[in-house]
Design brief:
27 strands; six-stranded mixed sheet; eight-stranded antiparallel sheet; alpha+beta; about 40% strand
Length: about 375
């Protein structure tokens, strides 16, 4: 496997310079600012350099290249596989209710006897991430590694895009199927957030929309905790996600981030399901706990690594970036300290992260550092 990483800014172009060679990538990853959607020069140059090459990716709340966090441009990975194969599929969605069907459709299209993993990049505003991954899980063989994330839009929560046919478009979900016996995908995910305050019951919800907590309007309850920060909703909610568990006897919980609020209905829309009857608590984080979580994700991802050229795809939550502030690159340094020497890193800050849970099936995460290591081990020719 050969890997080349580039960055792009509208005023300076590609770095290093984009060049056409005899080598042809198996697929290209692009993570960029929302404004990149209208940068015709970028897309025309990229498509001219790599005609008929699958291009996947999405908009971000910050682009990751190595241990740097960039804004306003794009980061690009050119991935050339030796014997493995990459197959790209996309679907369009217009409403949240289509999330499960979209995941199921993509899973069925990517089916292959030697499918090893799937990289998923989804619209970040009109998709229920929980239902999306359920569609993949129900239609892929158990053990298929599914990772990726929901597209971001900085702190604005207004518009996201996903690459479709070599251009940036909203309302799209894309998936790269990776097949071949020489290919391995390793993964790790950790949060570093801690719960505080009383546990409350979800007494009215529908999918990802939360209406009432302990029979009180959900948004009213939430604003009591935010105080003066409530005026900055929904962006300020990124600092205080919810921990959700199905019952008191359930020790496992998931983290959910607010994507939108409705003042009239006093409701909150999250990136994934908040089931009625579940128990929730607010969460908060410190610098040290977030950095420790990033390092632990690196340990998890590399535990089974056995050598070979390695691409590390990082998907971390915009909420982590807001809490870490100017120290945000320290979490990337924590990750790098755990990666194999020579591993190349690219990724983005997201509105939701997709990574396997303890049972091996993909789950939606929020406020989580997630890592996917793509490794191809091919025996040298004799």
């Amino acid at each position: 496997m050969r890997l080349d990483l580039l960055s792009y800014q509208a005023d300076t172009g590609f770095s290093p310079a984009l060049s056409v060679s005899e080598r042809r990538p198996s697929f290209v990853l692009v993570f960029g600012a929302t404004s990149l959607e209208d940068d015709a020069a970028f897309w025309s140059q990229l498509n001219a350099a790599f005609p008929d090459v699958p291009i996947a990716g999405c908009s971000t709340a910050g682009e990751i290249l190595g241990v740097r966090v960039l804004d306003g441009g794009a980061v690009i990975a050119l991935v050339e596989l030796t014997t493995a194969r990459a197959h790209l599929e996309t679907v369009r969605v217009t409403q949240i209710a289509e999330s499960y069907g979209a995941g199921a459709t993509l899973a069925r299209r990517l089916a292959a006897p030697d499918l090893r993993g799937v990289l998923v990049f989804s619209d970040g505003r009109i998709v229920n991430g929980s239902e999306l991954v359920r569609g993949f899980n129900d239609n892929l063989p158990r053990g298929t590694v599914v990772t990726g994330g929901l597209a971001g839009d900085g702190r604005r929560f207004e518009h996201t895009w996903v690459v479709e046919n070599g251009r940036a478009r909203s309302g799209v979900i894309s998936a790269v199927g990776l097949s071949g016996g020489a290919l391995s995908l390793f993964h790790g995910s950790q949060s570093g957030w801690t719960a505080f305050g009383p546990e409350r019951m979800v007494t009215a919800s529908e999918g990802s929309v939360l209406y009432r907590l302990d029979d009180k309007p959900a948004l009213e309850v939430y604003k009591l905790y935010l105080g003066d920060m409530a005026k900055d909703l929904p962006a300020s909610a990124l600092r205080f996600p919810l921990s959700v568990r199905s019952a008191k006897a359930d020790e496992r919980s998931v983290v959910r981030t607010v994507l939108a609020i409705d003042e009239r209905r006093q409701s909150m829309t999250f990136a994934g399901d908040v089931p009625q009857g579940s128990l929730v608590r607010l969460m908060q984080a410190s610098f040290d706990r977030l950095l420790d979580g990033a390092a632990q994700a690196g340990d998890d991802a590399t535990r089974a690594w056995t050598g070979g050229d390695t691409l590390c795809v990082v998907v971390s939550c915009v909420g982590r970036r807001l809490v870490l502030g100017e120290r945000v690159e320290e979490e990337l340094e924590s990750v790098r300290s755990r990666l194999p020497e020579g591993a190349k890193t690219i990724g983005f800050y997201s509105y939701g992260e997709l990574s396997p849970l303890v049972d091996g099936q993909c789950g939606l995460h929020n406020q989580t550092m997630t890592l996917t290591l793509l490794v191809e081990n091919v025996a040298p020719a004799l």
